[in-house]
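Q: Please design a sequence for this.
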């Protein structure tokens, strides 16, 4: 029973909470003298808050989709679809997840100027509430509307970034929000395409009704467009930061290599139908994991040792 409830919470999906740390990383607050209290702990609280909130939302999503999940070759093994957990027990468990999310917000320390009308904790709580509302609206309506479904999923990632920035008391840049939005659109569209590749068009439509409104060619084109938009947005950020990281040449450009490889690798795996969920790709595909790790290592190394004051 404990194992069934853990699977119902989908702890693997907590990996999406990595977006909560982007504000702390790119503001370089992790390198400051008060990093533990002003960056690490607040970001961890944001990570936990969004993690518990997402688990609660997944529970209510599974409650609504239990019949459709039983027709899905992989989702039929979920605790609710398989009958391991009763609907009533699942509902109480989902509410408990929301309570834990609220507790994580309340544990977040207040960071930032006291003169600001809202504290960092209140801003984080607002982002978590918006995330829950967005996800529940997705479950009820938006998941059945083409384009709106993937935009709602993308908004979830953007809210994680905003919540993480609020928790550490930094203002998110347009570069960060643009990259997050287009990357998450790429992931959401890739998931739709991956489902069609893995299940076939008819079975994908039976498992997810919005698939009837898409075509494979449209999803392929949209996936490519959002991947290109992600790379162009990030390359513009790299160019904008040239004064800080130029030592002979802009060293931050090196991060373009693993970023490009990771995105294209994801497209190849989705096109081949090997994964129908980007989370599975991130947790199972070694080359993709290596590119993500290399991107992170180069970025952190340059921030720690390669900083160059802007003129």
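A: Design:
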């Amino acid at each position: 029973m404990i194992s069934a409830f853990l699977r119902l919470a989908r702890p693997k999906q907590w990996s999406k909470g990595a977006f909560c740390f982007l504000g702390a990383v790119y503001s370089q607050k992790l390198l400051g003298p008060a990093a533990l209290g002003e960056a690490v702990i607040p970001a961890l609280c944001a990570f936990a808050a969004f993690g518990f909130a997402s688990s609660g939302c997944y529970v209510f999503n599974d409650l609504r989709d239990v019949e459709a999940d039983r027709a899905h070759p992989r989702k039929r093994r979920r605790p609710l679809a398989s009958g391991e957990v009763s609907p009533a027990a699942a509902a109480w468990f989902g509410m408990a997840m929301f309570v834990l999310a609220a507790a994580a917000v309340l544990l977040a320390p207040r960071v930032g100027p006291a003169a600001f009308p809202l504290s960092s904790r209140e801003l984080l709580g607002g982002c978590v509430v918006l995330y829950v509302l967005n996800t529940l609206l997705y479950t009820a309506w938006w998941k059945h509307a083409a384009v709106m479904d993937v935009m709602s999923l993308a908004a979830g990632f953007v809210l994680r970034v905003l919540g993480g920035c609020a928790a550490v008391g930094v203002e998110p840049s347009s570069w960060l929000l643009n990259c997050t939005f287009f990357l998450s659109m790429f992931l959401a569209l890739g998931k739709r395409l991956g489902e069609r590749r893995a299940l076939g068009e008819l079975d994908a439509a039976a498992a997810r009704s919005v698939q009837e409104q898409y075509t494979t060619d449209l999803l392929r084109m949209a996936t490519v467009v959002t991947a290109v938009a992600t790379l162009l947005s990030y390359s513009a950020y790299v160019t904008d930061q040239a004064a800080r990281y130029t030592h002979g040449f802009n060293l931050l450009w090196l991060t373009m290599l693993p970023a490009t490889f990771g995105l294209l690798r994801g497209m190849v795996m989705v096109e081949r139908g090997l994964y129908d969920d980007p989370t599975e790709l991130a947790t199972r595909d070694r080359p993709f994991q290596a590119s993500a790790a290399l991107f992170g290592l180069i970025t952190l190394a340059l921030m720690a040792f390669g900083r160059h004051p802007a003129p």
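Q: Thanks. Anything notable?
A: The chain has a mean pLDDT of 90. Residues 35-64 form the longest helix (30 residues).
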